[in-house]
Amino acid sequence: MYAVHDALRRELAHLDRLTTAADRDPRQVLATASGWALFKKALHAHHAAEDHALWPPLRRNLAGRPKDLALLEVMEAEHAAITPVIRAIDDALTDAGADSLRLGQLADALTRGLAGHLEHEEEAALPLVRRMLTADQWGHFSRVHDQYVDQDAPRLLPWLLDGADEPTAERLLARLPAAAYDACTTRWIPAYAALDRWSPGSAP
After folding, report:
1. Would you say 9 and 118 are in contact if contact means Cβ atoms under 8 Å apart?
2. pLDDT per residue as tens digits for the range 127-143
3. Please, which residues have CB within 8 angstroms of residue 201's CB and are 6 or more apart in sequence?
């Protein structure tokens, strides 16, 4: 969870630098940059797994605890508020009438909204998850998360490992089946390392 959050924050910083740069049109860059596509895929996988396999069992475990249940409602509302901002950014990339200022405003809204949500989740929701979710329920959530990542694993696994400290990287890699571990370490990571993901034309 924390590794995904750190990776999302890393990409938000890239997005901020891109949309505030004065030497290039951020719309042209973002429209064809693989970094934007990877960010969206990773965020969708993470939030969809939480919505479908984390909050529901946690809600059942919290029956009769209205204050904690209200927190889960807030988590889901924060997820829902992020989706329209991402859609608005994509719309701005294809709208000839949208300018760089509008894109910058939307990117700022996304950064503030998502960064605030990640911090809120870490401070309030994850301690509740640790206390109230069973090991089996956490295992199910992890498997569902992996399923959402599955077809994009050759890009998203190296993306997740990018910048992670050594103990975190080792733990993440240790979770992989042998074939995926071999593919990730010998092919996927080198291919990702050669990708300038926030440059125009890098999207597959």
Report:
1. yes
2. 999 999 999 999 999 99
3. 32, 33
Domains of the chain: total: 1
Q: Tell me, what's the pLDDT at 204?
A: 64
CATH number, position 181:
1.20.120
From the list 134, 117, 114, the residue with the least C-alpha distance to 60 is 134
Locate 98 and state its tokens. 């949208």
**How many other CB atoms are found less than 10 A from the CB of residue 2?**
11
Report if residue 201 sits inside a domain: no
Sequence-distant (6+) residues with CB within 8 A of 200 are: 28, 29, 31, 32, 33
At 8, the amino acid letter reads L
For residue 177 the two structure tokens come to 């089946």
Alpha carbon distances (Å) from 168 to 6, 12, 160: 11, 20, 10
The tokens describing 32, both together, are: 């064809």
In a domain, 199, yes or no: no
Q: How far apart are CA 152 and CA 56, in angstroms?
A: 25
Which residue type does 37 have?
Answer: A
Which amino acid makes up residue 15? L
User: Helices 153-161 & 2-20, crossing angle to 10 degrees?
Assistant: 90
Please tell me the pTM assigned to this model. 0.93
